[in-house]
Amino acid sequence: MAVGNSDTINRVDTDIENASDSVPKPKSNHYEVFNKINKINLLYGIVVGLSVENNWKYNNGTRWTKFMLIFGTGITVYSHFLVIAEPTKLIEVFSLFGIIIPAFAKFNVFVRTYPNAMAFIAFLRNVFKTITEGPSALVLQTHVEATFTIVKLCIFVQTLALFVFVWYPIYSYIVNNELVPIMPMQFPFVDQTTTGGFIVATLMMLKMGVWAYFGSVGFDLFLASLIDNYCALVKLLQQDLSDYIRMTRKGSGYSEQYKKAFFRNFLLKCQDKDRYIHLVNDAYADVIFKQFGMVYVCVNFIIYAIIRSNWYSGYGMLLFCLTEVYILCILGTAIKTENDNFSAAIYDIPWYDYPLAEQKKVLLLLHSSQNAMELWIGPVAPLNVESAMEITKSIYSTSTMIINTTK
């Protein structure tokens, strides 16, 4: 599947910058930063055999990841049967599905939509590579620097969550000689009340936890970069719009033919931008919905297990899940903000100075921008910070109710 026509993938008109000495031409290394972000995504993907690269195919890492998902699901179901008579333990085990089900969804959507992912990356790389100087390059430079900061912050928080997840059981064993399991999992033929059985079970849980970390963080960073780079496309369009307003002023020195061609290319870029976010939504809406749904259900049980059973590793899972939710919701809010800014910029165009044909196009453009697509959490709620806050408040209320109504 192609993201757009090859002739319209990146219509960057550098003539406008070359035609006027008044326009600054700052140098930029945004393409290098863009590649750094992609290399980070690639590193996480290579670990689990799901890397976004041109020659990717089903490999041993992919098969091992699939085995780990099936094995983790089987062990979780097996653990359910062992503790089915103990409601508290049953809730603790069920909380693990908050990681397993979204992980399955991410695995399946990557394998199914791999050609789409490559098309998205090629499209964005073409945009970032072609623009090398001028105001548009400065826009991209500012954007990718902010994106790189978000990526580093996300990795730091998720790595901290992994550390919290495994720290207390290891600390308790080394310092206090206590056998505290990382997760409420039971393995066939492994007696976790003995030192040997505890070490074997802990190593298996640690392996699954690290694998889940690389897989989930890698996919989340990739999806977040796709959503975030939509904002870059909108910012570039705002810059193009400013250039068009400047060139349509009296005495600007641009021919009518050039101005019409520039505006036509601008409209085609707007179509590419709209097509891009629609295709991202079509490819990944399902996994976003499943992730938020399972996080909502299972975080309640994680909180219950933390309060009732002093499950210290649950703090790591709680931080991990909430970070995933808030990163995507923050980016969803960024989309809404950029769309609103773009719509406001179009509204301020001096359309009354334009020929009638251009006035009609501006009106259609304004209508399109005011109805720009936003990402949703399935059919439930828009993907924004307000929804994240509502989810958090609902989790607090539900978990409090569960704790107060159970022994």
From TrEMBL:
Domain of life: Eukaryota
Gene Ontology biological process terms in this record: signal transduction
Entry GO terms, CC: plasma membrane
Compartment(s) of residence: Cell membrane
Keyword annotations from UniProtKB, A to Z: Cell membrane, Membrane, Olfaction, Receptor, Sensory transduction, Transducer, Transmembrane, Transmembrane helix
Keyword Cytoplasm tagged: no
Membrane topology classification: Multi-pass membrane protein
Cross-referenced InterPro entries: 7tm6_olfct_rcpt (IPR004117)
A GO molecular-function annotation: odorant binding
Membrane-spanning ranges: 67-85, 91-111, 153-174, 194-214, 287-307, 313-335
Family: Belongs to the insect chemoreceptor superfamily. Heteromeric odorant receptor channel (TC 1.A.69) family.
Protein name, entry field: Odorant receptor
Species: Bradysia odoriphaga
Upper taxonomic lineage: Eukaryota, Metazoa, Ecdysozoa, Arthropoda, Hexapoda
